[in-house]
Amino acid sequence: MPTYNITVNGDKKAVDASPETPLLWVLRDHLDLVGTKYGCGIGQCGACTIHLDGTATRSCLLPVSTAEGKNITTIEGLSDNGDHPVQEAWKAVDVPQCGYCQAGQIMTASAFLKDNPNPSESEIREAMHGNICRCASYNRIEKAVAMAAEKMS
Amino acid sequence: METSNKITFSRRNFMRTTALAGGGMLIGFNLFTACKEAVKPPVDIADLNFNDFNAFIKIADNGMVTIFSPNPEIGQGVKTSMPMIIAEELDVPWENVHVAQGVLDTKNYTRQVAGGSQSIRFGWDALRQTGATARQMLVNAAAAKWGVDASECSASEGIITNSKGETLGYGDVVKEAAALEIPENTALKEPRDYKIVGADAINVDMEKIITGKPLYGLDYKVDGMVYASVLRPPAFGQKLSAFDDMGAKAVEGVSDVIRFGEKVAVLANNTWSAMQGKKALKATWSDNSSLENTEDHDKILTEILDGNKFETRREDGNVKKAFAQADKVIERTYESPFLPHNCMEPMNFYADVTDDKIHLVGPIQTPEGTANRVANMLNRDVNDIHLEMTRMGGGFGRRLYGDFVMEAAEISNLAKKPVKVVFSREDDMAAGIYRPAIKYRIAASVKDGKLTGYHLKEAAINSNMYGLIPHFFPAGCIDNYKVSTANHQSKITTGAWRAPYTNFLAFAEQSFFDELARELEQDPVQLRIDLLQNVKGNTDDRIQYSGQRMEDTIKLAAEKGNWGKQEEGVYQGFAAYYSHNTHVAELAEVVMKDNFPVVTKVVVAVDCGIVINPTGAKNQIEGGVIDGIGHAMYGDLAFKNGVPQATNFDEFRLIRMQETPKVETYFVQNTLSPTGLGEPGLPPAGGAIANAIYNAAGQRLLKQPFVKHIKAEVKELVG
Ligand code: FES
Ligand code: FES
Question: Using the beta-carbon criterion (under 8 Å), do B662 and A139 form an inter-chain contact?
Answer without folding.
Answer: yes
